[in-house]
Design goal:
68 residues, mainly alpha, 3 helices, elongated
C-alpha cells in the first residue's frame, strides 16, 4: 500500500474541487490504482479540513525509562 503525504493529498483534493476532473480521471492522472482513496480524502477534508489529511504518529517515546 502506498503512503501519500499530506501535501499530495491536499493538492489532489483541491484539484478535484475545482471540478475539471472527476475521481477516476484524477486518480489515473497521478498513477493511483483506485479512486476510492481519493474519495476518502475528499470526505475527510470536508469534515476535518487540511489537518485531517496529515498522518499522525502513533508511537509514543519516553525520555526516562518507566519501571513497574
Amino acid at each position: 500500500m502506498a503512503k501519500y503525504g499530506g501535501k499530495f493529498k491536499l493538492m489532489l483534493v483541491r484539484e478535484y474541487q475545482e471540478g475539471k476532473l472527476g475521481y477516476n480521471p484524477l486518480a489515473e492522472k497521478y498513477g493511483m490504482k483506485s479512486s476510492a482513496q481519493l474519495k476518502r480524502w475528499v470526505k475527510v477534508y470536508e469534515k476535518f479540513g487540511a489537518e485531517g489529511l496529515v498522518r499522525k504518529k502513533h508511537k509514543e517515546t519516553y525520555s526516562v525509562p518507566i519501571q513497574a
